[in-house]
Fold:
Amino acid sequence: MDTFGVVNWIILIVYMGGMVYLGVYLGKKNTSSDEYFLGGRNIAWWAIGISVMATQASAVSFIGMPGWGYTGGLDRIAYTFAIPISMAVLMITVVPFFYNTKVVSIYEYFERRFGKKSRVISAFMFLVSRGLQTGVVLYAPALALSIITGLSSNMAIALMGIIAIVYTLFGGISAVVYSDVIQMFIIWIGVVLAIIIPVTTVDGGMAQIIQTGINQDFFQSFSFSFDLSESYSFWGGYLEQDSYGLLTLVQTKVKFKEFLQQSLLRKVKYRLH
Structure:
C-alpha cells in the first residue's frame, strides 16, 4: 500500500469496480440470447470499431511491441501496412456473405454447411488456441501490475481474470464492447503520456531522441527486397498481415461476433473502414 500509494489504489479499485458495475448494468437489458450474444444487433458502430482496436492492442502489444521495435527500428512496422487491404477484402467478400446468413457464430455456419463434427472440431481448436493466447495476454499485464502494486503475479492474474469473467458473464457482448471502449481510451492516454514524458524530460528533448535514433539506425528505411531471407521486408509484411488479418477477423469467434452486432450491413462496412 505504501509503495503504490493510496490514491493509485483508489483509482485501481474504482476502475475494476466500474467494470463490474458496467457488466451488471448492461446485463439488465439482455432479455434474449440475441441481446446477450449480439447486443440486439444495435450496438453503435463507433463502439464496435474501438472494441476491435482494443482487442487487437493487448498488453502484449503495448508492452512488447516497443521492445520489438527497439531491436530493429522502423522496418518492424511494415507488417501493419496490410491492414487496410485486409479490411477492403473483408468488406467486399467475407462480411456481406456471413452477415446475410444471419448466424450467431461462425461455428453455427460450419454446422449448417459441413455438419456437426466440423462445428465441434473448429470450436475446440478455437478454445485451445485462444486459451493459450489468453494465458500470455493475461500474464503480461499481471506482471506489470504485480511490480507496481507489490501483489504476487498469481494474485494479479486471479484478480484481473475474475473481474473480466464477472462483467462478461453478466453483461454479455455489450459489456465486452463498452469495456473495450473505456480501456482503449486509457491505452490512448498511456500512449500520449509515453511520448510526452520522455520528450519533456530527456536532456536535449526531441532533437536528442531523433539523433540517438539515427545513430542506432532506428530510422532505417523499409526493405522492398524480394529476398526470402529478409526477415522484415515490406512484401513479407503485406502477405503476413493480410493472411493473419483475415484469420483473426473472420475465423475466430471474437471478431465474427462483432461483425454480426450491427443492424445494417453498411454500418458493418463503415465500422471496418
Observations:
- The chain has one domain: 6-272.
- The CA atoms of residues 54 and 136 lie 16 Å apart.
- The domain at 6-272 is CATH 1.20.1730.10 (Sodium/glucose cotransporter).
- The first helix runs from residue 6 to 27.
